[in-house]
């Protein structure tokens, strides 16, 4: 049973005065997610809306959804006005902008109904893992401006600016989590948890010193060692959430396993081959392509997010689970023979170096790589890394190991473990 809070009661009361629009969305999401109900009717509805009101889709009307083109951020940027619904030009209620830290930035217009749907899905996906609407939580992100005291009280949140996670800031976070027993959960990028867990773990803290009930991690998957440290420190479930600014919550794990449940209530997700727009086979790595079922102001249809994942679902036209999400395509690197390696491959390889504080792997050329390691001096030798990496990159690989004291995060607060600056030559057809 979901525990009610005063703030939650007030929120739902205000929603009732406005026609219960968020509550209706919440109930719809709950019904679809907790049953085998499909949302294919809504998929057809958003496509019909696009055919009728969006210039880009006007000439593309088709009874076969897979005939529609797969689009990227670059398509939206180059033909931005063509993707706007002519029916909603004066109805843009909210704008969501990507940072561009892991790709190309762009802004998505949203109508009020889409915004209400997004709010409802956040409430639902928080609640199923123990974060009730209105409960106090700590939110780590790059805050564009400081929250006022009234805003923090109203939203019942503790904002943490991840652009400043030095020792003083980390100690302040630690003390706040220990002293404020009302903080029920945390939401942060995986890279922020890595820095925080490394700091607190060295202090020897134990779960009885905290009162967290759940930890939500977003952006990229937690490293196994980070997850283990968080569990030992806080003793609560660790939930991986796959979401983006353009759409919302796309998938989330449960406390008892690592499988991502796709948010079928609000999105239709496809996994397509790396070199074509054909569906991948079960167990095969594919590009995540999203159709947002509820944004009528700017329909997002067959949008290549740039992310990669694997699903074991047999029905490739109704994917409901993702076994793993393996980073972004732009973060893939290549061995010295030109074979592709996902960020997950590098992360698994680096698990053996458990005493490192940070690491970053960069491919600069076909056979030239840089490995930055923080916390390795006096523990690991340069040849430890070179010899082990030649095992996966090949003997022709040239690996430059750099011992550093810090590897900074990007301006958005995100951290990239793998970077590929090597431009793969296009194949001659």
TrEMBL record:
User: Which residues does UniProt assign to the signal peptide?
Assistant: none
GO molecular-function annotation terms? ligase activity
Q: Which domain of life is it from?
A: Bacteria
- What keywords were assigned to this record? Ligase
Recorded hits in SUPFAM superfamilies, A to Z, give: Acetyl-CoA synthetase-like (SSF56801)
The protein's name in its UniProt record: Phenylacetate--CoA ligase family protein
Recorded source organism is: Psychrobacillus faecigallinarum
